[in-house]
Amino acid sequence: MTNPNSILVYVRPWNLSQMAHLARGIWGEDASLSITSEHHTVDQSGLVATFNAAHSQARVDAPLRHLSEEEAADITLRCRLLRSIGKVRARHLLWAMEHAVDQVLTETKPSAMLSLTVDSYVMDIFAALCAKRGIRFIGLVPSFINEHFRISTRGEHNDSRVVSDADIDAALSTLIVKDYRPDFLVQTDTEMRRQMWRLWMRNLPKPLWFALRRMKPANRLNYHYWASQIIAAQYWALWPRMPKGISGPALKAVAEDDGLPRIYLPLQMSPEATIDYWSSDTRWIDYEQHVLDLIQRYRVKWRFFVKEHPNLLGYRSRGFYKRLEAEPNCIMVAPSVPSNDLVTLCQGVLVCTGTAGFEAALRGKPVLSDSEPYYAPPGTLLPIETLTEDLPDQIAVRERQNLLAGHVLRGTLSGRFLNNGKWCADNPTHSGWSDTMAASIRSYLDYADTQYTATPKTMSDR
Questions:
Q1: Greatest CA separation for the chain
Q2: What phi and psi values does residue 301 have, to the nearest 5 degrees?
Q3: DSSP secondary structure code for residue 247 in this structure
Q4: What residue spans of 298-397 are helical by DSSP H?
Q5: What is the per-residue pLDDT across 363-401, written as a single tens digit (0 to 9) for each?
Q6: What is the spatial distance between Cα 276 and Cα 21, in angstroms, rounded to a whole number?
Q7: Strand, helix or coil for residue 331
Q8: How far is CA 264 from the centre of its chain?
Q9: Which tens digit of pLDDT belongs to each residue from 178-190?
Protein backbone atom coordinates (compact mmCIF):
# COMPACT_ATOMS: atom_id res chain seq x y z
CA MET A 1 0.00 0.00 0.00
CA THR A 2 1.16 3.52 -0.75
CA ASN A 3 0.15 6.88 0.69
CA PRO A 4 -0.93 9.26 -2.13
CA ASN A 5 0.31 12.22 -0.11
CA SER A 6 3.74 10.74 0.64
CA ILE A 7 6.66 11.59 -1.67
CA LEU A 8 10.16 10.23 -1.23
CA VAL A 9 12.94 12.58 -2.38
CA TYR A 10 16.49 11.37 -2.91
CA VAL A 11 19.06 14.13 -2.30
CA ARG A 12 22.72 14.82 -1.81
CA PRO A 13 24.04 17.62 0.42
CA TRP A 14 24.59 19.95 -2.53
CA ASN A 15 21.07 19.67 -3.98
CA LEU A 16 18.78 19.32 -0.95
CA SER A 17 17.14 22.73 -1.31
CA GLN A 18 16.82 22.31 -5.10
CA MET A 19 15.14 18.90 -4.94
CA ALA A 20 12.83 19.92 -2.09
CA HIS A 21 11.82 23.08 -3.97
CA LEU A 22 11.11 21.05 -7.08
CA ALA A 23 9.09 18.44 -5.18
CA ARG A 24 6.93 21.15 -3.62
CA GLY A 25 6.38 22.63 -7.05
CA ILE A 26 5.22 19.28 -8.41
CA TRP A 27 3.07 17.96 -5.57
CA GLY A 28 2.22 21.12 -3.63
CA GLU A 29 2.95 22.44 -0.17
CA ASP A 30 0.66 19.90 1.47
CA ALA A 31 2.63 16.90 0.24
CA SER A 32 4.50 14.93 2.89
CA LEU A 33 8.12 14.88 1.77
CA SER A 34 10.51 12.25 3.11
CA ILE A 35 14.16 13.13 2.42
CA THR A 36 16.46 10.17 1.90
CA SER A 37 20.18 10.00 1.18
CA GLU A 38 23.28 7.89 1.80
CA HIS A 39 24.78 11.08 3.29
CA HIS A 40 23.99 11.07 7.02
CA THR A 41 24.10 14.88 7.23
CA VAL A 42 20.95 15.24 5.13
CA ASP A 43 19.24 11.87 5.48
CA GLN A 44 15.91 12.19 7.30
CA SER A 45 14.54 8.75 6.44
CA GLY A 46 16.76 6.53 8.58
CA LEU A 47 18.46 5.04 5.50
CA VAL A 48 22.03 5.52 6.75
CA ALA A 49 21.39 4.21 10.27
CA THR A 50 19.54 1.15 8.97
CA PHE A 51 22.23 0.50 6.36
CA ASN A 52 25.07 0.69 8.89
CA ALA A 53 23.28 -1.61 11.30
CA ALA A 54 22.51 -4.11 8.56
CA HIS A 55 26.07 -4.00 7.24
CA SER A 56 27.44 -5.06 10.61
CA GLN A 57 25.33 -8.23 10.32
CA ALA A 58 25.90 -8.90 6.60
CA ARG A 59 27.00 -12.36 5.47
CA VAL A 60 28.02 -13.50 2.02
CA ASP A 61 25.46 -16.31 2.10
CA ALA A 62 22.59 -14.14 3.36
CA PRO A 63 19.69 -14.20 0.88
CA LEU A 64 18.44 -10.98 -0.66
CA ARG A 65 14.91 -9.88 0.20
CA HIS A 66 13.54 -8.92 -3.19
CA LEU A 67 16.33 -8.75 -5.77
CA SER A 68 17.13 -11.82 -7.81
CA GLU A 69 20.74 -12.94 -8.13
CA GLU A 70 20.67 -11.82 -11.77
CA GLU A 71 19.52 -8.35 -10.75
CA ALA A 72 22.16 -8.22 -7.99
CA ALA A 73 24.91 -9.15 -10.45
CA ASP A 74 23.81 -6.42 -12.86
CA ILE A 75 23.68 -3.79 -10.11
CA THR A 76 27.17 -4.80 -8.98
CA LEU A 77 28.66 -4.70 -12.48
CA ARG A 78 27.27 -1.27 -13.30
CA CYS A 79 28.23 0.45 -10.01
CA ARG A 80 31.73 1.93 -10.16
CA LEU A 81 32.19 1.26 -6.43
CA LEU A 82 30.86 -2.29 -6.14
CA ARG A 83 32.77 -3.62 -9.13
CA SER A 84 36.03 -2.17 -7.72
CA ILE A 85 36.13 -3.55 -4.17
CA GLY A 86 35.89 -7.33 -4.47
CA LYS A 87 32.93 -9.69 -4.43
CA VAL A 88 32.66 -10.18 -0.66
CA ARG A 89 32.67 -6.50 0.29
CA ALA A 90 30.39 -5.66 -2.65
CA ARG A 91 27.89 -8.30 -1.56
CA HIS A 92 27.88 -6.96 2.02
CA LEU A 93 27.12 -3.44 0.80
CA LEU A 94 24.46 -4.63 -1.62
CA TRP A 95 22.71 -6.80 0.96
CA ALA A 96 22.74 -4.06 3.61
CA MET A 97 21.51 -1.37 1.23
CA GLU A 98 18.66 -3.52 -0.07
CA HIS A 99 17.61 -4.09 3.56
CA ALA A 100 17.77 -0.33 4.30
CA VAL A 101 15.94 0.75 1.13
CA ASP A 102 13.23 -1.82 1.72
CA GLN A 103 12.67 -0.49 5.23
CA VAL A 104 12.56 3.15 4.07
CA LEU A 105 9.95 2.32 1.42
CA THR A 106 7.92 0.31 3.93
CA GLU A 107 7.89 3.12 6.48
CA THR A 108 7.31 6.07 4.14
CA LYS A 109 4.86 4.32 1.75
CA PRO A 110 5.54 6.85 -1.05
CA SER A 111 3.32 7.13 -4.10
CA ALA A 112 6.31 8.50 -6.06
CA MET A 113 10.03 8.99 -5.67
CA LEU A 114 11.87 12.04 -7.03
CA SER A 115 15.56 11.44 -7.71
CA LEU A 116 18.43 12.01 -10.04
CA THR A 117 18.80 9.42 -12.76
CA VAL A 118 20.53 6.28 -11.46
CA ASP A 119 24.30 6.62 -11.10
CA SER A 120 25.09 4.36 -8.13
CA TYR A 121 24.03 1.10 -6.54
CA VAL A 122 22.11 3.05 -3.90
CA MET A 123 19.84 4.72 -6.44
CA ASP A 124 19.70 1.54 -8.54
CA ILE A 125 18.27 -0.41 -5.60
CA PHE A 126 15.75 2.35 -4.89
CA ALA A 127 14.61 2.27 -8.52
CA ALA A 128 14.40 -1.53 -8.61
CA LEU A 129 12.40 -1.84 -5.39
CA CYS A 130 10.13 1.05 -6.38
CA ALA A 131 9.35 -0.83 -9.61
CA LYS A 132 8.53 -3.98 -7.68
CA ARG A 133 6.16 -2.03 -5.41
CA GLY A 134 4.50 -0.05 -8.20
CA ILE A 135 5.97 3.25 -7.00
CA ARG A 136 6.64 5.77 -9.76
CA PHE A 137 10.37 6.57 -9.93
CA ILE A 138 11.15 9.98 -11.46
CA GLY A 139 14.83 10.18 -12.32
CA LEU A 140 16.03 13.54 -13.64
CA VAL A 141 18.81 14.16 -16.13
CA PRO A 142 19.76 17.16 -18.32
CA SER A 143 19.27 16.86 -22.07
CA PHE A 144 21.53 17.85 -24.96
CA ILE A 145 18.49 19.74 -26.24
CA ASN A 146 19.17 23.13 -24.70
CA GLU A 147 16.73 24.25 -21.99
CA HIS A 148 15.24 20.74 -21.74
CA PHE A 149 15.63 17.75 -19.42
CA ARG A 150 14.60 14.10 -19.40
CA ILE A 151 12.90 11.71 -17.02
CA SER A 152 14.75 8.40 -17.07
CA THR A 153 15.74 5.66 -14.65
CA ARG A 154 18.74 4.12 -16.38
CA GLY A 155 19.03 6.36 -19.41
CA GLU A 156 16.19 4.75 -21.35
CA HIS A 157 13.86 6.74 -23.57
CA ASN A 158 10.46 7.56 -22.06
CA ASP A 159 7.69 9.12 -24.10
CA SER A 160 6.90 12.19 -22.01
CA ARG A 161 4.65 14.44 -24.11
CA VAL A 162 2.98 15.04 -27.43
CA VAL A 163 5.00 17.06 -29.94
CA SER A 164 3.74 18.89 -33.01
CA ASP A 165 5.24 19.31 -36.47
CA ALA A 166 5.99 22.90 -35.51
CA ASP A 167 7.97 21.69 -32.47
CA ILE A 168 10.01 19.37 -34.69
CA ASP A 169 10.68 22.08 -37.28
CA ALA A 170 11.82 24.50 -34.57
CA ALA A 171 14.16 21.93 -33.04
CA LEU A 172 15.67 20.95 -36.37
CA SER A 173 16.36 24.56 -37.26
CA THR A 174 18.70 24.62 -34.26
CA LEU A 175 20.07 21.07 -34.28
CA ILE A 176 21.18 20.82 -37.89
CA VAL A 177 23.23 24.01 -37.95
CA LYS A 178 26.88 23.24 -38.61
CA ASP A 179 28.23 24.55 -35.31
CA TYR A 180 25.52 23.27 -32.93
CA ARG A 181 26.91 22.33 -29.49
CA PRO A 182 24.97 21.47 -26.32
CA ASP A 183 25.33 24.19 -23.71
CA PHE A 184 26.99 21.85 -21.19
CA LEU A 185 30.08 21.43 -23.42
CA VAL A 186 33.06 23.75 -23.10
CA GLN A 187 33.05 25.88 -26.21
CA THR A 188 36.50 27.33 -27.01
CA ASP A 189 40.16 26.29 -27.06
CA THR A 190 40.79 28.49 -24.03
CA GLU A 191 37.94 26.92 -22.11
CA MET A 192 39.20 23.46 -23.02
CA ARG A 193 42.66 24.16 -21.63
CA ARG A 194 41.20 25.72 -18.50
CA GLN A 195 39.01 22.65 -18.11
CA MET A 196 42.05 20.39 -18.42
CA TRP A 197 43.98 22.24 -15.74
CA ARG A 198 40.90 22.48 -13.54
CA LEU A 199 40.25 18.73 -13.69
CA TRP A 200 43.89 17.95 -12.96
CA MET A 201 44.22 20.37 -10.06
CA ARG A 202 40.94 19.28 -8.49
CA ASN A 203 41.97 15.64 -8.69
CA LEU A 204 45.41 16.06 -7.12
CA PRO A 205 44.25 16.09 -3.47
CA LYS A 206 41.19 13.87 -3.91
CA PRO A 207 42.64 10.44 -3.04
CA LEU A 208 43.96 11.71 0.28
CA TRP A 209 40.99 14.00 0.90
CA PHE A 210 38.39 11.30 0.53
CA ALA A 211 40.51 8.80 2.44
CA LEU A 212 40.56 11.25 5.34
CA ARG A 213 36.80 11.83 5.06
CA ARG A 214 36.24 8.08 5.28
CA MET A 215 38.22 7.86 8.51
CA LYS A 216 35.17 9.28 10.25
CA PRO A 217 33.05 6.23 11.21
CA ALA A 218 29.84 7.77 9.85
CA ASN A 219 31.49 8.18 6.43
CA ARG A 220 33.41 4.90 6.17
CA LEU A 221 30.84 3.18 3.93
CA ASN A 222 29.53 6.33 2.20
CA TYR A 223 29.18 5.61 -1.52
CA HIS A 224 30.24 9.04 -2.74
CA TYR A 225 33.38 9.29 -0.62
CA TRP A 226 34.49 5.71 -1.26
CA ALA A 227 33.85 5.73 -5.02
CA SER A 228 35.47 9.16 -5.37
CA GLN A 229 38.58 7.95 -3.54
CA ILE A 230 38.92 4.95 -5.88
CA ILE A 231 38.30 6.86 -9.11
CA ALA A 232 40.54 9.77 -8.11
CA ALA A 233 43.41 7.37 -7.41
CA GLN A 234 42.84 5.61 -10.74
CA TYR A 235 43.13 8.88 -12.69
CA TRP A 236 45.74 10.60 -10.51
CA ALA A 237 48.77 12.02 -12.34
CA LEU A 238 51.71 14.28 -11.51
CA TRP A 239 50.97 16.26 -14.67
CA PRO A 240 47.89 16.55 -16.90
CA ARG A 241 47.92 14.30 -19.95
CA MET A 242 46.90 16.38 -22.96
CA PRO A 243 46.16 14.16 -25.97
CA LYS A 244 48.08 14.89 -29.15
CA GLY A 245 46.05 15.29 -32.29
CA ILE A 246 46.04 16.58 -35.83
CA SER A 247 43.93 19.38 -37.24
CA GLY A 248 43.81 21.80 -40.17
CA PRO A 249 45.88 20.84 -43.26
CA ALA A 250 47.24 17.65 -41.62
CA LEU A 251 43.72 16.40 -40.96
CA LYS A 252 42.60 17.29 -44.45
CA ALA A 253 45.57 15.44 -45.95
CA VAL A 254 44.76 12.25 -44.06
CA ALA A 255 41.10 12.51 -45.04
CA GLU A 256 42.00 12.81 -48.73
CA ASP A 257 44.65 10.08 -48.98
CA ASP A 258 44.11 6.59 -50.39
CA GLY A 259 44.34 4.77 -47.09
CA LEU A 260 41.72 2.72 -45.29
CA PRO A 261 38.20 4.20 -44.99
CA ARG A 262 37.50 6.22 -41.87
CA ILE A 263 35.27 5.83 -38.81
CA TYR A 264 34.80 8.68 -36.34
CA LEU A 265 34.97 7.46 -32.73
CA PRO A 266 34.32 10.32 -30.28
CA LEU A 267 35.40 9.45 -26.75
CA GLN A 268 32.77 9.71 -24.00
CA MET A 269 33.11 10.81 -20.42
CA SER A 270 34.08 7.80 -18.29
CA PRO A 271 33.36 6.58 -15.69
CA GLU A 272 29.89 8.04 -16.14
CA ALA A 273 26.28 6.94 -15.81
CA THR A 274 25.88 7.41 -19.57
CA ILE A 275 28.10 4.34 -19.99
CA ASP A 276 27.65 2.39 -16.76
CA TYR A 277 23.84 2.47 -16.77
CA TRP A 278 22.73 3.65 -20.21
CA SER A 279 24.50 1.04 -22.33
CA SER A 280 22.78 -2.27 -23.00
CA ASP A 281 26.18 -3.63 -24.07
CA THR A 282 28.04 -4.00 -20.76
CA ARG A 283 31.41 -4.45 -22.48
CA TRP A 284 31.53 -0.66 -22.64
CA ILE A 285 31.75 -0.47 -18.84
CA ASP A 286 35.48 -1.19 -19.15
CA TYR A 287 35.46 1.78 -21.48
CA GLU A 288 39.08 2.37 -22.38
CA GLN A 289 39.80 -1.32 -22.97
CA HIS A 290 36.70 -1.76 -25.13
CA VAL A 291 37.66 1.22 -27.29
CA LEU A 292 41.09 -0.32 -27.85
CA ASP A 293 39.54 -3.73 -28.56
CA LEU A 294 37.30 -2.25 -31.25
CA ILE A 295 40.14 -0.41 -32.95
CA GLN A 296 42.28 -3.56 -32.93
CA ARG A 297 39.44 -5.77 -34.15
CA TYR A 298 39.07 -3.75 -37.36
CA ARG A 299 42.75 -2.97 -37.87
CA VAL A 300 42.88 -4.13 -41.49
CA LYS A 301 39.46 -2.74 -42.46
CA TRP A 302 39.08 0.75 -41.01
CA ARG A 303 40.97 3.75 -39.68
CA PHE A 304 39.51 5.40 -36.62
CA PHE A 305 39.51 9.16 -36.07
CA VAL A 306 39.49 9.45 -32.27
CA LYS A 307 38.76 12.74 -30.53
CA GLU A 308 38.69 13.41 -26.80
CA HIS A 309 35.55 14.67 -25.10
CA PRO A 310 35.95 18.45 -24.56
CA ASN A 311 34.89 18.19 -20.91
CA LEU A 312 37.37 15.41 -20.06
CA LEU A 313 40.64 16.59 -21.51
CA GLY A 314 43.58 14.85 -19.90
CA TYR A 315 41.45 12.92 -17.41
CA ARG A 316 42.09 9.35 -18.47
CA SER A 317 43.95 6.45 -16.91
CA ARG A 318 47.73 6.40 -17.23
CA GLY A 319 48.91 5.29 -20.63
CA PHE A 320 45.57 5.35 -22.43
CA TYR A 321 46.51 8.03 -24.94
CA LYS A 322 49.83 6.31 -25.67
CA ARG A 323 48.09 3.00 -26.26
CA LEU A 324 45.72 4.69 -28.70
CA GLU A 325 48.58 6.43 -30.53
CA ALA A 326 50.39 3.09 -30.84
CA GLU A 327 47.56 1.58 -32.88
CA PRO A 328 48.42 1.88 -36.60
CA ASN A 329 44.80 2.48 -37.60
CA CYS A 330 44.08 5.08 -34.90
CA ILE A 331 44.41 8.77 -35.75
CA MET A 332 44.16 11.14 -32.81
CA VAL A 333 42.38 14.37 -33.72
CA ALA A 334 42.81 17.63 -31.85
CA PRO A 335 39.95 18.26 -29.38
CA SER A 336 39.39 21.68 -30.95
CA VAL A 337 38.23 20.16 -34.25
CA PRO A 338 34.43 20.47 -34.44
CA SER A 339 32.70 17.12 -34.21
CA ASN A 340 30.54 17.83 -37.24
CA ASP A 341 33.68 18.32 -39.37
CA LEU A 342 34.76 14.78 -38.52
CA VAL A 343 31.29 13.46 -39.28
CA THR A 344 31.69 14.91 -42.77
CA LEU A 345 35.18 13.46 -43.27
CA CYS A 346 34.31 9.90 -42.17
CA GLN A 347 32.23 7.13 -43.68
CA GLY A 348 30.50 6.39 -40.37
CA VAL A 349 30.36 7.21 -36.66
CA LEU A 350 30.76 4.68 -33.83
CA VAL A 351 29.40 5.47 -30.37
CA CYS A 352 28.35 3.87 -27.12
CA THR A 353 25.57 6.27 -26.13
CA GLY A 354 27.21 9.60 -26.96
CA THR A 355 25.10 12.32 -28.55
CA ALA A 356 27.57 12.66 -31.41
CA GLY A 357 25.68 9.67 -32.79
CA PHE A 358 22.45 11.65 -32.86
CA GLU A 359 24.09 14.63 -34.53
CA ALA A 360 25.61 12.35 -37.18
CA ALA A 361 22.36 10.46 -37.78
CA LEU A 362 20.55 13.77 -38.30
CA ARG A 363 22.98 14.50 -41.10
CA GLY A 364 22.33 11.15 -42.75
CA LYS A 365 25.62 9.54 -41.76
CA PRO A 366 25.62 5.80 -40.85
CA VAL A 367 25.90 5.45 -37.05
CA LEU A 368 26.98 2.27 -35.31
CA SER A 369 26.06 1.31 -31.75
CA ASP A 370 25.11 -1.83 -29.82
CA SER A 371 23.95 0.16 -26.80
CA GLU A 372 20.43 1.24 -27.82
CA PRO A 373 20.96 4.95 -27.02
CA TYR A 374 17.81 6.76 -25.97
CA TYR A 375 17.91 9.29 -28.79
CA ALA A 376 17.53 6.74 -31.60
CA PRO A 377 14.25 5.01 -32.53
CA PRO A 378 14.67 1.23 -32.93
CA GLY A 379 16.21 0.32 -36.25
CA THR A 380 17.83 3.66 -37.06
CA LEU A 381 21.36 2.74 -35.92
CA LEU A 382 23.54 -0.08 -37.26
CA PRO A 383 25.11 -2.85 -35.15
CA ILE A 384 28.87 -2.47 -34.77
CA GLU A 385 29.34 -5.83 -36.49
CA THR A 386 28.35 -4.00 -39.68
CA LEU A 387 31.99 -2.81 -39.83
CA THR A 388 32.91 -6.23 -41.24
CA GLU A 389 31.24 -5.06 -44.44
CA ASP A 390 30.95 -1.84 -46.41
CA LEU A 391 28.72 0.79 -44.86
CA PRO A 392 25.60 2.01 -46.65
CA ASP A 393 25.55 5.34 -48.38
CA GLN A 394 24.59 8.51 -46.56
CA ILE A 395 20.87 8.97 -45.99
CA ALA A 396 20.08 12.68 -46.05
CA VAL A 397 16.31 12.85 -46.09
CA ARG A 398 13.95 15.13 -44.21
CA GLU A 399 11.77 12.19 -43.16
CA ARG A 400 14.67 10.65 -41.23
CA GLN A 401 15.44 13.96 -39.54
CA ASN A 402 11.79 14.36 -38.54
CA LEU A 403 11.76 10.81 -37.14
CA LEU A 404 14.88 11.38 -35.04
CA ALA A 405 13.94 14.86 -33.82
CA GLY A 406 10.38 13.83 -32.99
CA HIS A 407 11.62 10.83 -31.02
CA VAL A 408 14.03 12.93 -28.98
CA LEU A 409 11.51 15.69 -28.34
CA ARG A 410 8.89 13.21 -27.12
CA GLY A 411 11.43 12.09 -24.54
CA THR A 412 12.32 15.57 -23.28
CA LEU A 413 10.53 18.21 -21.23
CA SER A 414 10.90 21.97 -21.08
CA GLY A 415 13.06 23.26 -18.26
CA ARG A 416 16.70 23.68 -17.39
CA PHE A 417 18.01 21.20 -14.83
CA LEU A 418 21.06 22.69 -13.10
CA ASN A 419 22.83 19.51 -12.04
CA ASN A 420 26.12 20.92 -10.75
CA GLY A 421 25.33 21.87 -7.16
CA LYS A 422 25.15 25.61 -7.92
CA TRP A 423 21.37 25.95 -7.72
CA CYS A 424 20.33 28.65 -5.24
CA ALA A 425 16.79 29.26 -3.97
CA ASP A 426 17.54 32.99 -3.62
CA ASN A 427 18.41 33.27 -7.30
CA PRO A 428 15.17 34.08 -9.15
CA THR A 429 16.55 32.62 -12.39
CA HIS A 430 17.28 29.31 -10.68
CA SER A 431 13.91 29.14 -8.97
CA GLY A 432 12.29 30.00 -12.30
CA TRP A 433 14.04 27.06 -13.95
CA SER A 434 12.77 24.82 -11.16
CA ASP A 435 9.20 26.14 -11.51
CA THR A 436 9.29 25.40 -15.25
CA MET A 437 10.53 21.89 -14.53
CA ALA A 438 7.79 21.35 -11.96
CA ALA A 439 5.10 22.37 -14.44
CA SER A 440 6.61 20.05 -17.05
CA ILE A 441 6.69 17.12 -14.62
CA ARG A 442 3.07 17.70 -13.65
CA SER A 443 2.14 17.57 -17.32
CA TYR A 444 4.27 14.46 -17.75
CA LEU A 445 2.48 12.71 -14.89
CA ASP A 446 -0.88 13.50 -16.46
CA TYR A 447 0.39 12.32 -19.85
CA ALA A 448 1.82 9.09 -18.43
CA ASP A 449 -1.41 8.30 -16.60
CA THR A 450 -3.38 8.57 -19.84
CA GLN A 451 -0.85 6.63 -21.94
CA TYR A 452 0.13 3.74 -19.72
CA THR A 453 -2.00 1.44 -17.63
CA ALA A 454 0.57 -1.31 -17.08
CA THR A 455 2.62 -1.56 -13.88
CA PRO A 456 6.08 0.02 -13.84
CA LYS A 457 8.88 -1.86 -15.58
CA THR A 458 10.83 -4.49 -13.68
CA MET A 459 14.61 -4.49 -13.56
CA SER A 460 14.81 -6.79 -16.58
CA ASP A 461 12.67 -4.37 -18.61
CA ARG A 462 14.68 -1.27 -17.79
A1: 69
A2: -115, -40
A3: -
A4: 320-325, 339-345, 356-362
A5: 899 999 999 999 999 989 999 999 999 998 877 678 889
A6: 29
A7: strand
A8: 21
A9: 555 555 555 567 7
